[in-house]
Specification:
By secondary structure, the chain is an alpha/beta fold. A six-stranded parallel beta sheet has the order 1-3-4-5-2-6, sandwiched between helices. A three-stranded antiparallel beta sheet has the order 7-9-8. The N and C termini lie far apart (about 125 Å). It is built from 30 helices and nine strands.
């Protein structure tokens, strides 16, 4: 070998030694980043081993050249091979610099490189395999030592890179996707971060209320692997044991797993074992609609969750409405909770489903707000608008008419190319499935949801939900409703004193759908009556010293008392004229009380109770009067007086209390002209009632004197 040729070989050796030094440092950085050398991806351990063999082999070649054991012809023959090795090593070095975390990299950069490394694995693997083949060729043909050549060959053969086989990949996503997918960038980025960890079993659960777009996100994530040629994607419907079994059969047939045609084979075991085998390659398994905890994690019975594979070659993404299922499957740390879209993405979604019309932009925003940015509800509304040739404003007018109209529109079926063909589309139907599951599996939780649905949807105190003697039973029920994302815990302000009475929010559209669900099951009046009785038993007297207590109940009382069945009939005023001889503006007796007659006791469970209604109306009136809202106070007091006079009697204590409340809500200094008029037209006749002998025989002189003094 000439001196120049020897310098070429020596130069190659220098480059290889430099690269070995870099790789050693890079692997050390991986060790320090992960914290455990055993967790360093096998591919990078093999890279280091291959490079050491390359250096050793080329050093041997250099030694032969220097000692004259390598003739000129052989030098010329081997030189192109070494040169190509050098070029490939340079490419490998550039790839490693892009994918391996450095000492100065921040956490975000390290995570980015970890994700990038997954996508570059195939390139790294191809380069290293090519280098290893060339070095085996050099060791076998250009070195003198047979034992040396065999050692290099055996070492390379022992590495996982040499044993890596080309795997066929599969893309089994039975649901189509839509080009108008919008938003959810943060969620998709989070899926990348959590699912694409090298040499690690990754499990993530997407958890959220039905209609939030869990399946769409899973589809969008899966499509990223469609043309990768490196990762197989399998889809399993987990809404029932039958659908899950069919999905496993489909996987076995598509992948032609040996034994699949054996009628005695357990298909779950067969597919699970195949996925856990390294020969199946890298894969992503999407388990969709895994909502039934009993089906997946039933104690003392077959657990379908046990047939989900565990392998460092694969990752599993589960979609579920149940937080409890999500925690059992992936742990709380690996759950991604889905809420509605942000307003901007909601508007983009609506616009993508409707004809272009710049003048409708404001309407799109109103629609998104009205439907609380729930993706399925927005798509459903857009479909109704398009099919019926409406404008967004016309749809909103229909929707806002009343609760019945809202529910009817939310129950409209529509075509959706993305949703599972076996799952009905309307948002109301989607949620009704959840309600039915709760009612069958956790009846007490269904009772709590029923009670919450007739109250104000915001800031519901736990003390209003105590319909059981067991606090543990209540906490479990609330936990179950939170698990299904039907309610949320309201975080208190730092200076809140209500630590002993936590509050919860009910999704407004969930409340609407629950009420209609109750109505279809003839239970809405039952739960409304129960709520009135319960609230009346908790509501204090409306005085200032109990203000902190009644403030948290007031909005719920107002919501209950706004029920149209106990709202006054304003078309007549005959009863009030007969009672007081004066005209009031509160309307006539509600129809539900018209056939009850005089009664002093409380109504049976499920019946409308005039006692509780009058008491709650009076206390709400006092609350408004305490806060100076006299117009509202007078309205509730007069409503109480009408019901009390007709159902309880003119001489009932509840009627007297209503009189007292009516007077105090109206006669508040400074007196004005209408107060004087009110005194002569209304208060004077009341005073005549109070001083009758019959009243004195029924009630204490102290009470009557107190009322008379007020008048």
């Amino acid at each position: 070998m000439s001196g120049a040729e020897a310098l070429v070989v020596i130069g190659i050796i220098a480059n290889i030694v430099a690269l070995i030094d870099f790789t050693g440092k890079a692997v050390s950085r991986i060790n320090s980043f992960v914290g455990d050398a055993r967790k360093v991806p096998a591919l990078y351990r093999d890279v280091q081993s291959i490079l050491l063999l390359v250096a050793d082999t080329v050093r041997e070649l250099d030694k032969q050249a220097k000692e004259g054991d390598l003739d000129e012809k052989r030098c010329h023959t081997v030189q192109p091979t070494i040169k190509r090795c050098e070029e490939e090593l340079a490419n490998l070095k550039a790839l490693l610099e892009k994918t391996l975390p450095g000492d100065k990299d921040g956490r975000r950069d390290r995570l980015h490189k970890a994700i990038t490394s997954l996508r570059k694995d195939k390139e790294v693997q191809d380069i290293v395999q090519s280098i290893s083949k060339k070095i085996q060729l050099v060791a076998a043909n250009y070195t003198i030592s047979t034992s040396k050549s065999k050692r290099v060959s055996d070492a390379i053969s022992s590495l996982s890179i040499s044993n890596t086989q080309e795997h066929q990949t599969y893309f089994m996503v039975p649901i189509q996707w839509s080009d108008d997918f919008s938003g959810r960038k943060d969620e998709l980025t989070e899926l990348e971060r959590r699912l694409e960890s090298p040499d690690k079993l990754s499990r993530v659960a997407l958890v959220g209320l039905g209609g939030m777009g869990k399946t769409r996100i899973a589809i969008e994530y899966a499509r990223r692997f469609r043309k990768s040629g490196e990762v197989s994607v399998f889809w399993v419907h987990a809404s029932s044991a039958g659908r899950m079994r069919k999905a496993y059969f489909d996987i076995a047939n598509e992948a032609q797993i040996p034994g699949r045609q054996d009628t005695k084979i357990d298909i779950f075991t067969l597919v699970k074992n195949w996925l856990e085998d390294q020969k199946s390659g890298k894969w992503l398994l999407i388990v969709d609609n895994a909502d039934d905890a009993d089906l997946l994690y039933k104690h003392g019975g077959p657990r379908l969750a046990d047939w989900l594979p565990r392998s460092e070659s694969g990752s599993i993404l589960m979609t579920t409405r149940s937080e409890r299922v999500g925690i059992s499957f992936a742990t709380a740390a690996n759950m991604i909770r889905l809420a509605g879209l942000n307003p901007e993405d909601s508007i983009v979604l609506v616009a993508s489903k409707l004809p272009d019309d710049p003048s409708s932009a404001a309407g799109h925003a109103d629609l998104a707000q009205e439907l609380e940015c729930i993706p399925l509800a927005l798509v459903q509304a857009a479909a109704f608008i398009s099919i019926n040739g409406l404008t967004v404003s016309e749809y909103l007018d229909l929707y806002r008419a009343n609760d019945s109209a809202k529910f009817e529109l939310l129950s409209e079926d529509f075509e959706d190319e993305v949703r599972d063909i076996e799952i009905r589309n309307p948002i109301a139907t989607t949620w009704a499935i959840t309600f039915d599951r709760i009612r069958s599996q956790e009846p007490f939780a269904a009772d709590i949801l029923s009670l919450m649905s007739v109250l104000d949807a915001q800031a519901i105190p736990e003390s209003l939900l105590s319909i059981s003697d067991s606090p543990i039973k209540l906490k479990k029920a609330l936990g179950s409703l939170r698990s299904y994302s039907l309610i949320s815990f309201r975080r208190r302000a730092v200076d809140s004193h209500a630590h002993d009475d936590p509050t919860y929010d009910l999704h407004r559209l969930v409340g609407l759908t629950t009420r209609n669900w109750l109505n279809m099951n003839n239970s809405l009046d039952l739960w409304t009556n129960r709520a009135i009785k319960l609230l009346d038993s908790r509501y204090p007297d409306g005085e200032f010293d109990t203000r902190d207590v009644w403030l948290k109940y007031l909005s719920h009382a107002v919501t209950l008392l706004a029920n149209e069945k106990i709202s006054p009939d304003v078309s007549q005023s005959k009863i009030r004229r007969e009672f007081l001889g004066v005209h009031l503006d509160c309307g006539n007796l509600p129809a539900v009380f018209s056939n009850q007659g005089l009664r002093g006791d409380h109504a049976l469970d499920g019946d409308w109770c005039p006692n509780c209604t009058v008491s709650l109306l009076n206390n709400v009136s006092k609350s408004f009067a305490t806060d100076g809202a006299l117009t509202q106070a007078k309205l509730y007091a007069e409503r109480a007086l009408v019901v009390a006079a007709e159902c309880l009697g003119k001489e009932h204590l509840g009627t007297l209390d209503s009189l007292d409340v009516s007077i105090t809500s109206c006669i508040v200094p400074p007196l004005k002209l209408h107060h004087v008029q009110f005194t002569f037209e209304w208060i004077y006749p009341i005073r005549q009632i109070l001083i009758t002998p019959n009243m004195r025989s029924r009630y204490s002189e102290t009470l009557l004197s107190s009322l008379a003094d007020v008048i």
